[in-house]
Structures are given as structure tokens and as C-alpha cells.
Amino acid sequence: MPEDRDWEAYKVPPTRTPVSERTTSVPNPVNFFQSAFSYVIDAPVTFVREWIERQQAKNKFYYYHQKFRRVPDLSECMEGDYLCYYEAEAQWRRDRMVDQEIVEIVRERLGACKQREGPNQFQNCAKEMQLLAQVTKAYQDRYGDLGFHGNARTCLMKQKHRMMEERKAAQ
């Protein structure tokens, strides 16, 4: 049977149910509640919202992401300066999250390269593999063995101990 029917050839019979237009002297309560809601609740809220949007349109503010100023490292804080300790800790946590995202992005790029190249992945994705190895080694050197509850002080101590071991190995 064809999809496109010729409606002139196959006319649909008219409906037998007459359309009634009921007009009564009693008003419909639904219409009353709809108009009351519109005037009492919807109109003031819409007016306030449109006013706020007009005010915001005057003062365009383009917000991309929050930029924090760089604060001194924990090693640069004076003794007993707890505000500096707190800011250095917050800065260290942000840096750690950025480094985690860098490792994840490089890992995703390597996975995409492996998916794209298929059997030739070892020779065509060597640059990405080398970059992932460098990034993960740098991340492991800085944040490895700190655990979930690592903080800026333990990370600084870890770096200090690593530098001391490197000096001893150099001698």
C-alpha cells in the first residue's frame, strides 16, 4: 500500500457528532483561577524577572573561570603566619588538581591515538606515550606517596628529602 495516499480519491466521511457550542450564564471557574493566577502571581514575577534581565543587560559581565592570584609558597611564609599557611595550602591543592587534570588530558590523548591508529599504535603514538611517561613521572615525583590526606607541608618535606638524597648520591 502506498505511503502517500490520494485524499481526494478516498474521502473521509464527515463525523456524525455535531460540534456543540455551549454557552451558559455560569462562568467557568477554571478561567477565573487562570486569570487570577496570571494577575496575582505570574505578572509580578514576570515583571521583576524582566527588570532584572534589563539591569543585567546593561552591565555585561563575561565570566569564564575564576582566576586566583599566585600566593607565596609554604617555604616563603613567615613563622606563625597562619593566613599565609592557609593560602599556601589552598594554592597547593589547586596546583595538585591542575596537575591531575594535565595527566588525565595526556592519558585521554594517548587513548584517542591508540584508538585511531589501531595496530600501528606503537610506532605512531610513541610521542604521546613518551609524553605520558614524562608527565606521570613528574606527578609521581611531586605527589606520589602522599596519600589522600597529603598537604603542602608533607609535599615540601618530601621534596626536601628527595633533594638531600640527590646531593648524597652526587657525592
Automatic annotation (TrEMBL):
<dbReference type="Pfam" id="PF10249">
    <property type="entry name" value="NDUFB10"/>
</dbReference>
<keyword id="KW-0813">Transport</keyword>
<keyword id="KW-0496">Mitochondrion</keyword>
<keyword id="KW-0999">Mitochondrion inner membrane</keyword>
<keyword id="KW-0472">Membrane</keyword>
<keyword id="KW-0249">Electron transport</keyword>
<dbReference type="InterPro" id="IPR019377">
    <property type="entry name" value="NADH_UbQ_OxRdtase_su10"/>
</dbReference>
<dbReference type="GO" id="GO:0045271">
    <property type="term" value="C:respiratory chain complex I"/>
</dbReference>
<keyword id="KW-0679">Respiratory chain</keyword>
<comment type="function">
    <text>Accessory subunit that is involved in the functional assembly of the mitochondrial respiratory chain complex I. Complex I has an NADH dehydrogenase activity with ubiquinone as an immediate electron acceptor and mediates the transfer of electrons from NADH to the respiratory chain.</text>
</comment>
<comment type="similarity">
    <text>Belongs to the complex I NDUFB10 subunit family.</text>
</comment>
<dbReference type="InterPro" id="IPR039993">
    <property type="entry name" value="NDUFB10"/>
</dbReference>
<protein>
    <recommendedName>
        <fullName>NADH dehydrogenase [ubiquinone] 1 beta subcomplex subunit 10</fullName>
    </recommendedName>
</protein>
<dbReference type="GO" id="GO:0005743">
    <property type="term" value="C:mitochondrial inner membrane"/>
</dbReference>
